[in-house]
């Protein structure tokens, strides 16, 4: 028969250990339906809390609702265990991979190796005038900019371009020499080429010239020399899906920025880097290559 006891809602501090055994029975604490807070070993003193049995067949269950399980003592990173079963965390480094070490010791983040791509940021935009990458552009051999399914809202015969910044986006510079080649990919019946030397020309991503709206493009731009005192260079390749199902135009571009040899730490995509006005959409992903 169950028994209800009352201790004036508290058990005073004891001079000896308090033991509560259940034998073959179940001990239940706060199993009613009322909302409450259960505190165990939360005092400010140095305490060791043991939970669960060391019996080889015992089970310890930790349950949670939508609030989740919080472990506030860990720094953000990957959780690892030691040979003694102790759980800790190791923090990551951009461009590094979590690597196994000697058996019985915790893993650590190690350089990913030459040629590995590290995602810096992905931006999926709709109806914007510019896309800026202003953080994480440092310490890589070169950068890869993926341009996926991008198009102008109303104007097709326009070009997206890339400018760069040496002050985190406070101001934007241009590539001062640009050569852009556009050709018909299906049968080479049409070939168009444009070579420009200008102090106002940015590195072109695309120039839509087609019959289908919205004119959609896909491509990859590689950017070199951003971290050293040399002319900045970029090459682009992609395809323009603005014509009919048979004709697809290949897009090729090459540019160099001889106007600045300072370290580049930000990239802008826009129709005009200084005064962008036309709206465009798409997904843009920037990678650093170790």
For the biggest sheet, the summary is: 8 strands, antiparallel
Structural class: mainly beta
Helix count, per DSSP?
Answer: 0
- Ends apart, CA distance between termini: 71 Å
Average pLDDT value? Answer: 77
Biggest sheet, spatial arrangement of strands: 5-16-7-12-13-14-9-10
Binned, the helix content reads under 10%
Shape: elongated
The tally of beta strands, per DSSP, is 16
Q: Output the helix-strand order.
A: EEEEEEEEEEEEEEEE
- Radius of gyration equals 31 Å
Domain count: 2
Strand-residue proportion: 35-45%
Walk me through what this model shows.
This protein is 0% helix and 38% strand. With 290 residues, it is mostly beta strands. The protein folds into 2 domains: 78-111, no CATH class; 117-289, no CATH class. Strand 1 (78-81) and strand 2 (87-90) form a beta hairpin. The mean pLDDT is 77.
Question: What is the topology?
Answer:
Elements: E1 78-81, E2 87-90, E3 96-99, E4 108-111, E5 117-128, E6 130-133, E7 142-152, E8 159-165, E9 177-184, E10 191-197, E11 203-207, E12 217-224, E13 232-240, E14 249-257, E15 266-270, E16 280-289
Antiparallel strand pairs: 1-2, 3-4, 5-16, 6-15, 7-12, 7-16, 8-11, 8-15, 9-10, 9-14, 12-13, 13-14
What can be said about this structure in brief?
This protein is 0% helix and 38% strand.
Structural key phrases:
mainly beta, 16 strands, 290 residues, 8-stranded antiparallel beta sheet
